[in-house]
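Subgroup meeting minutes
Present: P.N., E.W., G.H.
Scribe: E.W.

1. P.N. recapped why we're keeping a running log of single-chain structure predictions: easier to compare across weeks, and new members can see raw inputs and outputs side by side.
2. G.H. added today's entry (265 aa).
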Amino acid sequence: MPFGRVVDTTTGNGLRISADGNPEWKIGGVVIDWSTVAAVGSDTTIPYELTVVKNGQKFLRYGQVVTKIVNTPTMTLTITATGGTYTISGQNPLTGGYVTTTALAYNAVAATIQAALDVAFGAGNIVVTGTGPWTFTPAKDFLYTALGLFTANGTLATGGTVVIAQGNAGTAPNNGMFGPYDPAASDGRQTLTDGEVFIINSTVLQNGLVPGLATGNNDSPGVLYGGQVYKSRVLATAGTHSLAAGPTYTELKAVLPRLVFVEAD
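Output recorded in log:
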């Protein structure tokens, strides 16, 4: 199947969650952000499969629910000036060059600021919201880029200041990557959204662990969103959702309606 770079180094029984051998795959897999996965504190044996994960290593077990990271960084423009004009400058992450908007009046509304940013950075790449202070949010071509903080030149503004500050710091370089579902997270992994939730079919280790076998990052494991799966192998719960227990079965079915649970395995 056409997944990305994968190095499978496992031991034990190699359990999978697919019950019929014909799951509905996410073509291309997903890219795991391993910084969202905690390393084990001691040698750990994966239940039933009996794969041993060595102390200090990371893994995602068969049946793990992974969700998309969508923690987008923002900037805030605050103006106390009562007259004059200002400009906004910043680096275009796609070209590496610095650009500057045309002069904006101190009392320019969001639509006017938006139009100036569209010309300077490309239409729709920065979205302006608010009525003052204004929030700048990367979108479109800038959504998954490391966007530097813009600056405001208010030397021609009078009666106050024009300042751009970091809003939500975000995790732009990791946007679009995936990590384990965690209702206590704040980077998007706490949200179950249709099209952004998948289940890992078989255990994936971050690195090869067995001496003499291949090593390397498992960047893009195979994940599925539909088909028959063994219910007992999916990391989900009939109780309260959590990182350890996973989402509830009801929550999972709501975003993966094509999933069919098979009770016995």
